[in-house]
Amino acid sequence: MRVDIISIFPEYFAPLDVSLMGKARERGILDIRLHQLRDWTRDVHKTVDDTPYGGGPGMVMKPEIWGEAIDSVVAQGQRDQQAHQGHQAHQGGVEGGMPAVLPRMIVPTPSGRPFTQEVALEYAKEPWLLFAPARYEGIDSRVMAEYGSRLRVDEVSIGDYVLAGGEAAVLVIVEAVGRLLPGVLGNACSVADDSFAPGAMANLLEGPVYTKPPVWRGHEVPEILLSGHHGKIARWRRDEALRRTLEKRPELAARLDAGSLDALDRRVLEEFEGRSSRGSSGGASSDLSGGASSDSFRAGPEDVAN
Ligand code: JD8
Fold first, then answer.
1. pLDDT value, residue 190
2. Is 194 an active-site residue?
3. What is the CA radius of gyration of the chain?
4. Reported pTM
């Protein structure tokens, strides 16, 4: 996957040199290119912003600079493709390259559609992503209109809180998408187990995890985990994941597909219901008529420290 990022703070993306994303780049699975937006300014002050029409606080990013930058980065990406295909064609002795692919343009903004695991899975299928993280009050809206007619443009938000700019959101999205690419996660771990692949644990939060020593500062590891009884351990983990989801994310629990719950699951829900009605914790109701949605999010067993 090719990823182009245009920003006035390209140094913000140094974290993409390390850990999982760093290895994915070394292995050629991810091809990340950083671009300094100011390289497309023409004035001595390298100005990228101006006052908002209609007044109001802050500054808005100028459309011309973004237009020049996006046109240039897309053209360069297409030339690289042609060169790559030409090289492949030459090796394979076949004529006529494939039609030039255009990138999917992603603009982080607090007013964007929620970025979820389902969206991450969607982006992971793309050959080329172009990120336009902004600063100030954002980018002149005509830029998204201009490219919305030529590219697929997504305005996305990573959460209901306000950041100072889009760079942090791009880091989040690149990591969430990058770890889904074939060959990035070690073979021990597969995203099929984790990221919402429809399955028994979809829509459930992670349960608690433990490692050696069996006793630490007087705190013991739950006995069941030392039993070696895989069936009972799996059951215990599911119960813990259900309880944690009911307690911390009742709206997710409400989206659990009733059909995917077995009698033991329902026992956990009724037990929680009982506890919550006794304690009026206002937790999730066990009426699971909501039906499952695929955009759940469960972390996967990364085999490297992040
Ligand atoms: C892009 C500029 C700052 C936002 C005035 C504060 C995403 N989940 C998210 N929260 N915030 C952002 C985000 C914030 C951004 C930009 C994304 C570009 N800002 C602006 C409008 C109010 N300042 C985000 N994804």
1. 58
2. yes
3. 24
4. 0.88
